[in-house]
Amino acid sequence: MKTVKIFLIFLMIKFSYSANILGIISLPSGSHLVWNKNLYQALAQRGHNITVIAADIDKKNENKNIHYIHADAYKSIDFGNVTLLDTVFDEMSPFMTVIFAANYYKMSCDGFLKSDGFKTLLNYPDDFKFDLVIYDFTAGPCLLGFLHKFNYPPIVGVSPFSAPPNTFDLAGGHKKPAYVLHYGIADENDQLSYFKRLRNTLVYLWDDIYQKYFFIPSIDKMMRKSYQFKDLPYAGDLENMITLALVNTHYSIENTEPMPASVIPVGGLQIRDPKPLEGDIKNFVESGKKGTILFSLGTNIRSDFMDQKNRQMFIDTFEKFPQYNFIWKFESDIGLKLPSNVKISPWLNQNDILADKNVKAFISHGGLLSTQEAAWYGVPVVGIPFFVDQSKNVKRGLNAGTHIELSFKTLSVSVLENALKEILENPKYTQNAQRRSKLFRDMPEKPLDRGIFWIEWMLRHKDDHSSIIPPSKKMSWFISNSYDIILTFVVLLHLIIFGTIKLMKKLKTKNEIVVNVSLNAYYKNLWHAMQFMMTSVQFSIVFDQSLTKMHQCHILPFILFSFINGIFCANILGNHALMLALAERGHNVTVFSPDPETRDIPSTLHYIHAEKAYEIIANDPHGLNLLGGVNNSAFEEAKTPWRFGELGCRGIIGSIGFQTLLNYPDDFKFDAVIYDFTCGPCLLGFVHKFNNPPLIGVTAFGTPHYTNDIMGGHKTDAFVPHFALEYGNEMNLIERFHNVLVHGFDYMYREFIAIPSQEAMMRQYFPKSPDFGVIERQMRIALVNTHFAYEYTEPTPPNIIQVGGLQIKDPKPLNEKIRQFIESARKGTILFSLGSNMKSEMMDDAHKLSFLEAFSSFPDYNFIWKYESDKLPTKNIPKNVLITPWLDQNSILAHKNVVAFMTLAGLLSTTEAVWWGKPMIGIPIFVDQYKNLAKSVNSQIAIKLNYASISEETIKNALKEILYNAKYARNAKIRSKLFQDQPQKPLERAVFWIEWTIRHKDDYHPIESPVKKLGPFKANMFDMILYLIVILMLISYLLGRHCHKRTEIHNEKKKN
């Protein structure tokens, strides 16, 4: 509750001017008005002026800031003598559903373009200023010609229709047909068989083809006739101008799927705080002896479309339940006698009725908005789906145990009676609905507040929002999914096989007997290869299923407890901030770590010191030379975290702290384990020892690529470089090929060397523990140190929570000596710190002297140098240089007179520099520092200084560039605004999700990615790709055999 209040205050003070906003609802549908209207009203209440063009308007609108332009598109929608009630889509193939929907959208577009409302908006002056367009993109770009007319204001896409198939084409990201069902397909089981996944993929492919090559071109032609702008861009290009997409989805109701930062889930945005019922409705709802059932078919399906026979069937059924009242949304005179327990009304406030505690069930068509409202208020549903997504929504409710599904075509008194008896008398439906309600409601902020925040975010950052756009938006699906790399591997493999056979053909024995290897042998070998690949596919599927079963461990309940076994010192900074925040909220936190914190900690925070960890790392004969990493290859550098982890694990075993924790009783109760998974699962045996409490992953190391392996995400090697590479997110084929190889090497090293090595060291202490890799995959959520302001944007599932900058606090007052030194500089002060792992004293004397001499050349600037000892190569320290063994980096960077930061570009230092808007000179040494700096250089907030070529001259040149070129400071301030402009502080978000995990320790499954159960082989459709390759090879084989046979016949004829 405190977080919500803070968020609302934040919203009130964050935006201070009224914007002119154009709202476009492209689909004639009352439900779309209901959803969008809630957004418009909230924005109007905050002072914005909203102009809305739509086929459905709010006739009761009394807000002077909202102006509706009625474009009656319904005049062109003609289904002949068929009503929507007759279009039961369970009899229509999903391929035809795509065509049906597109035809409806085209008829709608024709109606819009012919309407008086369209002409009214078209007659607005061309220089009329709209600051933003909110565009419901469900039904296509018909009305986006107004973007061109009004000089291209920023555009935010919205859709009440969940996340339509084209969402990720418009805002970036990928649809996942392996487990995200197309709206035209309904299946109660998320674990789709191979052929169901194939069918789903083909439907998505058909939808994409039909949209791009039939629907959008036809809309474009219609637009050109009506707008008559000579330079009007192509309709598809106009739609692609979307930056953000607000989609009506939530993991408790919809498929869990990965989303980039540009796609914002706002499922349930239309749900308002309920008002008390009044008058006849209140009396009727509350007079039901056992309760009341709401019956409504929504806004598109009207109950009065039913014939008299079906109307009577419902009435007869309701009469059989005299202890319950039935309130029925019926749009006209029913023409039949009603029993005393049935009341009809042409309009009902569905939200407020469902919120009443006396409402026990809901008979619904299964529309998404109705499904969400039932879920929000914990009301079980009898679903009677008709068309589009309704069947899918009901099937998901069936899978969640909150719904019973009926078919309108086979409905009868007995069928409906049995369904009502089941849902009213079997408590499991109400229990499951209430569990679903708790999951749906438990968010950091209300969906409407989230939607408002991001719309106003777009207004605040209309000129500098590019960093939130994922690179995949600019890439084709073929490249962004790395299919070109897969194809390259296949071609290379084919060439190697072919080349080997050709080489063998040329070889001769010593007796000059030619080895009889011909093309016939090649195709024979190819046939064997195909048979092997077919077997491999079958084995891979079975192996994938076995891995899946291994990973499905029962997780038992568990006060707060933390492992920190990542031996990067920097990790403790973020982790300690999190542990301190949890302790301050009253949780008892026990932390096992090589870096204990003893200053100013509450009594509820207790550290167990793994005191030997650093000693082993420092003294190991094969230890790590940090400066040696400067010349490492990417493959060698990829091993560094695992070598840290292995050495740290050895040190932990020899620590008194380890024995202390090991001696805790096995039945000691912990409510959660917070596990830093950066350097491997060394300590995960304790999870088993303490009876498998919920496991929460954290890392200060960005979003490590193996996060997706653990949490059920997807590889993004096509546009997210490995931490050891300095590539940007727009890589060419060679760079992407290299990136895939490094990622693959890292994955193999972690899975088959690093994890087994750490587990082998620990096995004697935890002999009965499952494999550590299996325990690791029990992680409920992962809190990762990333944000689009400084990291590459990539899609993640909802169980990966971005908390970049978690360690950043409000600055503390500086000690007097440092404050005076900073403020005494005439032009500003530069902070120089190499972080916590690499120490300045590790540099050779020549490098140290180069820095001091370079600093002395800038007398108008002061330099604060974090130097850990008093052993400097000279006693002649320049007057403008202050040497200190420790400093409060965060508070110094926050000071307005600090103008630049010289850093290794470790991620925590990078986040603090970006947060406070300070340009950087980066000197990367090892691990992720290269990637961090490359992103900053690409964003023009930093320049790179190569450690190997450091001299007085190179340092001076770097300082001149960063201090005298204003673009770095200007861009740093822009990035700072982007980073700080969040709905809540990163630390608050992290605390929320940890406590969420504890609250939902038994009901967390909806947030889990389906990839965890499906396995990466199926989730990435590699089985389909492999089968396709087999088919192509079969064709190649048959063609080769055919050609070879034809050649033999031709040669025989020649001989004869």
Automatic annotation (TrEMBL):
GO molecular function: UDP-glycosyltransferase activity
Segments crossing the lipid bilayer: 485-504, 555-573, 1021-1040
Matching Pfam families: UDPGT (PF00201)
SUPFAM superfamilies: UDP-Glycosyltransferase/glycogen phosphorylase
CDD domains, A to Z: GT1_Gtf-like
Keyword terms: Glycosyltransferase, Membrane, Signal, Transferase, Transmembrane, Transmembrane helix
Endpoints of the signal sequence: 1-18
Family of this protein: Belongs to the UDP-glycosyltransferase family.
Name the UniProt record assigns to this protein: CSON009258 protein
